[in-house]
Amino acid sequence: MSEDTRLPARLEIAALIRLAQTGGGFAAVLKSGEEQAGTILLVLTENGTNPRVYERMPQLDGSRTWHCSKKQDTENKDNISNYLSRRGSQDDDLWIIELDIANGERLIGLPPFAD
User: Fold this and answer.
1) Which residue in 58, 40, 66 sits closest to 3, CA to CA?
2) For strand 95-100 and strand 64-71, is the pairing parallel, antiparallel, or unpaired?
3) What is the DSSP code (8-state) at residue 115?
4) Under 8 Å CB-to-CB from 51, ≥6 apart: which residues?
5) CA angle, residues 6, 12, 13, in degrees to nearest 5
6) Which of 22, 30, 73, 96 would be a feasible disulfide site paired with 79, CB 3.0-4.6 Å?
7) Is pLDDT at 58 greater than 80 in this prediction?
8) More confident residue, 46 or 115
9) What is the per-residue pLDDT across 73-102, written as a single tens digit (0 to 9) for each?
10) Nearest 5°: CA angle at 33, between 70 and 62?
11) Domains of the chain and CATH, by start
12) Please, are residues 108 and 66 in contact by the beta-carbon 8 Å criterion?
């Protein structure tokens, strides 16, 4: 899907929230961004634990694939919240969405997270 034909961010977010909720999980919008083309950061947790942050990264072929950009550091419990605060303050268009569901990676087409 080219940049011109990608889904508006608000529709993709609505779909991810619906998938999490119908799967018995919880979803929350932590920060609203630009409705059409805002970048999406996903915070995936399982029962409020083991947070991981995913975002799409551009590839050489023009595609954009999900990549784990941050995971919980057991020695620094604030590393994810600090990262989200920093990213949110740098990008007004950024969406931050939390999905609390077992194996949330499946919702974005990735294999289960392994420590």
Assistant:
1) 58
2) unpaired
3) -
4) 43, 44, 45, 71, 72, 80
5) 145
6) 73
7) no
8) 46
9) 878 878 899 999 999 999 999 999 999 999
10) 65
11) 3-103 (3.40.1530.20)
12) yes
Question: What is the reported pLDDT for 75?
Answer: 81
* Long-range contacts of the stretch 32-36 (C-beta < 8 A, 24+): 32/95, 33/9, 33/91, 33/92, 33/93, 33/94, 33/95, 33/96, 34/9, 34/92, 34/93, 35/8, 35/9, 35/10, 36/8, 36/9, 36/10
Residue whose structure tokens are 């609203």? 32
CB atoms within 10 A of CB 45: 19
Separation of alpha carbons 62 and 42, rounded Å:
21
Residue 4 is given by DSSP the state: G
Token digits of residue 96:
């931050």
Going by pLDDT thresholds of 50, 70 and 90, the confidence category of residue 30 is: very high
- With tokens 């990735």, the residue in question is 110
